[in-house]
Amino acid sequence: MSDPVRILLVDDHTLFRQGLRRLLESDPALHIVSDCKSVREAISLLDTESIDLVLLDYDLQGERGDALLTHIRDHHHAGVRVLLVTAGIPVPETLRLLDSGAGGIFLKHSPPEHLTAAIQSVMEGRQWLDPQSLRAITELAASGTSHPPENARPLTLREREVLKGVFEGFTNKEIGARLDVSESSVKAVIQQLFMKTGVRTRSQLVRIALEKHADWLES
């Protein structure tokens, strides 16, 4: 049996933080190391405790959660992953946070049972994007505010289907089951997507699709 995921909760609303702690402590696969209400406290805990994952609110009483992302990057906490748990973030800021190292965005009004899936995706190195955030990004693309490069190669239907599965945090095996194709076929399509975008990882694929090819996410 693998060790539980060691989690640090960072949120300035005490009741929400306590409720989230109770929810997660009921899962034996998760261990809440500590919780706090500010970036300063979080930095102190990161420098003294063994943490695998930070569940981080974006707006912390005048502080912005991305200051903690900067600390994690600059102080070489390479093994620490971050999932933003927030009431909402503007689309441009969502893209910037993902590019700064956030593993995903989880909205506070989402069903609580989805949080476990989000945590699992982020811990496996896959990016989690709340469906509402994804819709906001695609609507921005449809409005003409975000333009793909003129030389961007269009995706096939199968590539779009697989990319959608990657965005939703599914494994290759799960995507294959949804599409009724083999896991090796999904791997081959993902390699095609890597070649079209010039990236090497699923996280990079998610980021570049959001930032430069948002039209690919339209239905």
Describe this structure in words.
The longest helix has 15 residues, at 183-197. With 219 residues, this protein is of the alpha/beta class. 34% of the residues are buried. The chain folds into two domains: 5-137, Response regulator (Rossmann fold, 3-Layer(aba) Sandwich); 149-217, Orthogonal Bundle (Arc Repressor Mutant, subunit A). The strands form two sheets. A six-stranded parallel beta sheet has the order 2-1-3-6-7-8, sandwiched between helices. The chain has a two-stranded antiparallel ribbon with strand order 4-5. It is 48% helix and 15% strand. The model is unreliable at 145-150 (pLDDT under 50). β7, α5 (113-123) and β8 (128-129) form a beta-alpha-beta unit. The protein is built from ten helices and eight strands.
How many helices does DSSP assign?
A: 10
Q: Report, as a whole number of angstroms, the end-to-end distance.
A: 40 Å
Output the structural class. alpha/beta
Overall geometric form = globular
Number of strands: 8
Low-confidence regions:
145-150
Strand order of the largest sheet: 2-1-3-6-7-8
Strand count, sense and barrel status of the largest sheet are: 6 strands, parallel
Kindly report the CATH topology of the largest domain.
Rossmann fold
Tell me the Rg in angstroms. Answer: 18 Å
Percent helix range: 40-55%
